[in-house]
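User: Mind token order:
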Amino acid sequence: MTYFHLTNLRRQIFPTTKPRQAPRWTLVGATGLTAVALLSAALPMSPAEAIYIDWRFQQNKNAYRICAQEMVGVGIAPQAAAAACAAARHPRDISKCVAQINTKTKVAAMDALFNCRRVRRPAELANCVVDINDQAQGAPIASVLDHCRRSLLPERFSECVIGLSKELKFPTEQLLATCIDARYQIGQFEPNAVPPVTSPVQPTPVPPASGQ
């Protein structure tokens, strides 16, 4: 058997395999993700904004540690941050409230902390202040913060102010006073509501006992 035949027989028994290449869409996807990561790292971002945006990726860390980081990141003094985080039932709620109000409005960090510590729903307070400031402009931010803090349901209060401001051409300050009025509080009747009239319940007669 010649060398040529031996070579062909060897190729048939031991075929040469070439390494498989990754699909082009995989390479394109990996390149795109790398570009996005590099672009995100290159974008300018303040420490306070970075802390606020990245809080969702830090769920497994100590809540008091994250609270202190967020507080100090927006300019709260370490002593005040320690006292606020230690006294909070949910430290992350307080720090997120302060960071959101401070970074998205012109409220000073200490003013935000003062109000966030005095409500039962710090997250709703922050949403109330930011939403009214963005969508119902015209009122001083200090007044918006005060009204949101005084409301029993801050998010419902902000919906009231924003909804009326979209339809009625009233000053935002007037709408703040209207929506915070006692008639909009929980457990109160509407101003023109008529209580339902109910008939008194008649007692059921009891038949006399036998033998009487």
Notes: The mean pLDDT is 76.
